[in-house]
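User:
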Amino acid sequence: MSSNLDEIQKQRELTNRDLMKTYARWYLSVEVSNSYERLQALAFCNALSGSLKKLYKDDDQGYREALIRHLQFYNSEGTFGAVIHGVVLSMEEEKAKSKDSSDSLSEEVITGFKTGLMGPIAGIGDTLIWGTLKPIILALASSLALSGLFIGGIVPFLFPLAVILIGYGMMKSGYLLGKDSVTKLMKSGLINNLINSASILGLFMMGALSSTYIKVSTPLEFTFKNAEPIVIQDILDQILVGILPLAAVFGIYFYFKLRGQYYNRLIMWLIVISLITGFFGILQGS
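Assistant: Predicted structure:
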């Protein structure tokens, strides 16, 4: 596969350096110029401008039209969505080479293809990058930091590094494979496998962190004359070790499911419940 891509790249106008500059511009400006009218369009056009100038080096009018074309509304996930940039550059290169041919790509085809990919790619990118990769890395960092390890302060920097590597890889693949890259990606089933695998890993890590760092126990005990006291926590441990932390996790889960994701409201409820149960000696952190 790698050798095939190398052969394809030899036939292309843009080099790895050009693609790296394009992605660097996108990475640094993706959320800078957002507006209700165009959202990420200015950043998209800015990112592609240097590469478009090279593709339309002998056609100033074509270059201006390309810039105007990519100032239209655009909004997608920034990392995984970089594949769209690559595909668009591939299509622009094809258009630039065949500008005097009847087979030349029309503006509508390029714009329609880009617009059609925004939603599906955003769903995939948000799930994999922001819904799975980021929480896993930050959870790992928190775990290490709570253990007093200095590396816990370094691990979060793995996320921007991963974003850069994934984003550039997606852009390069989109450029070299063109329109077929997205089709192959969707039909291969790879995305579904990645999402399922990442979800399983995320749930596994969240469960491990919850069982390790959520500490809830009860000091309640009942004393009878001429008998050993009945310790409620010992009885609960015989049923299932960690049953109270598990109940707390499921209680938060069902709160989100039934009431919605109102984080500040949940925090206030947790504080109130903790104060009341702690004051009456019902629950304690251990």
